[in-house]
Amino acid sequence: MLPILVVLACVIFLWGMVNYSSFVAKRKQISDTLEARLSAQQQLGEVFSRLADWAHRHALSVPDVLLLLPDLHVVQPKKTVESWCVEAEEFLEKVRQTPALGQSQEFRNLATALDQTQKAYLLARKRHTAAVNGYNWEAQHMPSKIIAKVFGFRPV
After folding, report:
1. d(CA 154, CA 145)
2. Taking phi first (over 0 means left), then psi (-120 to 50 degrees means alpha), and beta for anything else, what does residue 134 get?
3. Please, what is the Cα angle at 70 between 82 and 29, to 5 degrees?
4. Could you say which of 44, 59, 140, 141 has the lowest number of CB atoms within 10 Å?
């Protein structure tokens, strides 16, 4: 009977260690994806600033959102970033309708840069959301919930 109890205790201990390691890895993944999301958001802000500068040089009316970006060193909510992108796309569409400006190489480069940074931001946000959802699911469901409670891994 004693060997069975020892084996059972070892299995439970190993299971706990694997779950603990999984939580630590998921926290690291959340941190890494958050950093990538923040970096992509800052790059998006830089493109918005370049676009606003370009518009000023050509005496165009610039949407306020491109001029008054909030603190880009803090992750902004999805809705906020989406509203920036919508405003920027509407501005680009207006410029495209102006033949002289819409066909310039500099404008096309800015439009391409905006498109690429938007895609990079969306991918970074998607990866971060997936990392958070995976961690939260594991922290809230049995049997991993036991390890989460014991070691203080709370849902994000």
Report:
1. 9
2. alpha
3. 65
4. 59
Question: Which H or E run contains 135?
Answer: helix 105-140
Contacts of 60 (CB under 8 A, 6+ apart): 95, 101
Per residue in 62-105, pLDDT (tens digit) is: 888 777 777 787 888 888 888 889 988 999 898 888 888 878 89
How many domains, the chain? 1
CA 140 remoteness from chain centre: 23
Please give the residue range of the domain that contains residue 84.
37-151
Cβ proximity of 80 and 70 under 8 Å:
yes
Spatial CA neighbour of 117 closest among 50, 32, 34, 33: 50
Is 16 inside any structural domain? no
**Is residue 2 one of the residues assigned to a domain?**
no
| Identity of residue 139 | A
Residues 136-156: tens digit of each pLDDT: 999 999 989 998 999 999 998
Q: Residue 51's CB: how many other CB atoms inside 10 A? A: 23
Q: Length of the chain in residues, anyone?
A: 156
Cα–Cα–Cα angle for 74, 121, 108, nearest 5°? Answer: 120
